[in-house]
Amino acid sequence: MIEKPLKAVGVGLGPSNLALATAIEERNLKIKDNFDCLFLESNRNFQWHPGMLIPGMQLQVPFFRDLATVRNPQSPFTFLNYLKSKNRLDQFINLRTFYPSRVEYHDYLTWVCERLSHITKFGCKVKSISPVWEENHRIIKKLKINYVDKKHKNTKSCIAENVIISVGGEPYFPPCVNDFEDDRIVHTSSLLKKIPNRFVQSFENYHFIVIGSGQSAGEAAYYLLKQYPNARVSLCFRNYSLHAIDNSPFVNLVYHQSAVDSFYKLSNPLKIKALHDLRTSNYSVVDLNLLNDLFKEQYLDLFQGKERLKICPGLNLENIMLTNSIVQVDFKDIYNESTETMKGDAVILATGYVQDNYSKLLDELNEHLKKNDDGEYLVSKNYQIQKEKSMHANVYLQGYCESTHGPSDSTLAIMSTRAELILEAILNDGCSIKNNLKIVRKELNEA
Ligand SMILES: Cc1cc2nc3c(=O)[nH]c(=O)nc-3n(C[C@H](O)[C@H](O)[C@H](O)COP(=O)(O)OP(=O)(O)OC[C@H]3O[C@@H](n4cnc5c(N)ncnc54)[C@H](O)[C@@H]3O)c2cc1C
Predict the structure, then answer these.
(1) What is the Cα–Cα distance from 331 to 121, expressed in whole angstroms?
(2) Is the pLDDT of residue 440 over 60?
(3) In DSSP terms, which residues pair with 125 in a beta bridge?
(4) How much of the chain, in percent, has pLDDT values that exceed 70?
(5) Per-residue pLDDT for 2 more than 90?
């Protein structure tokens, strides 16, 4: 049975599409027309990076940058409203922080999700998006979203005029890793799933080799030191030193939605330069408080004549070898122009994510979507992929536009306002008319 076409289908339900779902829901509560939408999520329940939900670790953006506040501080879906409804607002205020723990933020996102169950479907993995031809095979007015329903173990589809893809990234494994299944090679995305299962003796003197110099590497090292008081942790990375995140106020201005406009206007070479200049605001950097905590651990050990945390700069990963009893990791020592071999019980890869996994979903639409000379989709300022004349349906991207829209795109920083812009574009049938946002706001105010 072919179901009624929907106005919009969101593929993936992480924070990005959840922010869009709240914007649509708020509109639907005020304006009684038919903005039918559905959000499909592969997981069977809501999850936000569960492998890294390390107790005590904090959100890296202020809670004001939640799913709704910057878009509409009066939204029922704000973090503050969540706290109020959980009867923790007073106590949270006493914490005197803008940065809740990630565990609490995960609970907030789950709470929002529960309120949107009528427009979400879990356990549904989208496999492809295909064209629905009309007018004698001349025009694609709608898209067919094909997915596997994990619960019913069958393939299903739905039809929509607009598709918003926010499927996140996929763990990046360096080319030398060829055994992904072994539970001694752990990407940080599955840290809490694999490590406690394999390493069950808390007081054993394991040796963990952590590779990376970003926030996840710092968090993984700290977690291992706390969880295994007798373990050794070698933190290995290419840079000359560990660096703190630059989240000072002027740099943070770049993470506002208004900064996306200025970034979008830059020429490509200047975009590359700006992203390079801003690298220390997001990549290969660790929160200063966490760096201080790691340093304190190291100092306390020194005082007790121990060396549990070893910081190993200048090491480029070359090879990982597994035997029954050990994991051997070979590095090139960049600054000493030599090689270094380490033997340990597990290697933890804090090597980040690749963000191009979404494109395979669009294979069947390829000739109807515009690309640049490098084969990348051309994306308008309103996050819509530019299209050929044959294509009347619209595809929007969230989280894949860093090179065109600036460094905030792959973070939580602009979620609520980006969702508002996409909703505006959908309501205006994909056109980006200047000041159209005013139309959406007027609609909401008049309702
Ligand atoms: C450990 C960690 C902590 C972070 N903390 C911060 C932070 O504090 N501040 C910040 O600004 N950024 C942070 N980030 C950056 C991160 O990009 C954002 O936190 C956020 O998760 C991005 O949301 P998203 O919805 O775009 O993607 P994701 O959260 O990755 O969600 C994508 C969803 O799509 C689903 N999916 C994938 N494929 C399919 C498919 N084919 N069909 C259906 N569903 C699919 C996935 O299961 C997933 O639920 C962090 C990243 C990590 C890894």
Answers:
(1) 45
(2) no
(3) 148
(4) 95
(5) no
Tell whether the model's pLDDT for residue 387 goes beyond 80.
Answer: yes
| Cβ atoms of residues 322 and 279 within 8 Å | no
Residues 227 and 313 in one domain: yes
Q: SS3 for 420-440, per residue?
A: HHHHHHHHCCCCCCCCHHHHH
Angle formed at CA 21 by CA 15 and CA 23, multiple of 5 degrees: 105
* In a shared domain, residues 135 and 221: no
User: End of a domain among 353, 370, 402?
Assistant: 353
Rounded to whole angstroms, what are the CA distances from 182 to 89, 122, 220, 323?
44, 29, 18, 11
Provide, rounded to the nearest whole percent, the portion of the chain with pLDDT above 90: 89
The 10s digit of each residue's pLDDT in 283-335 is 999 999 999 999 999 999 999 999 999 999 999 999 999 999 999 999 999 99
Most ligand 1 atoms within 8 A of CB, residue of 9, 16, 219 to mutate: 16
Judge contact between 68 and 78, C-beta under 8 A. Answer: yes
Contact 20, 417 (CB under 8 A): no
Q: Tell me which of 48, 106, 216, 411 to substitute to probe ligand 1's pocket, judged by most ligand atoms within 8 Å of the beta carbon.
A: 411
Residue nearest to atom 51 of ligand 1 (CA): 49
- Which position has the token pair 């809740």? 100
**140 C-alpha to ligand 1 centroid (Å):** 30
pLDDT in tens, 242-278: 999 999 999 999 999 999 999 999 999 999 999 999 9
Gap between the Cα atoms of 360 and 332, Å rounded? 35
The CATH number assigned to the domain holding 185 equals 3.50.50.60
In one-letter notation, the amino acid at residue 58 is: Q
pLDDT in tens, 407-418: 999 999 999 999
Domain that holds residue 327: 171-245+283-353
Question: Distance between CA 313 and CA 317 in Å, rounded?
Answer: 11
CA of 289 to the centre of ligand 1 (A): 23
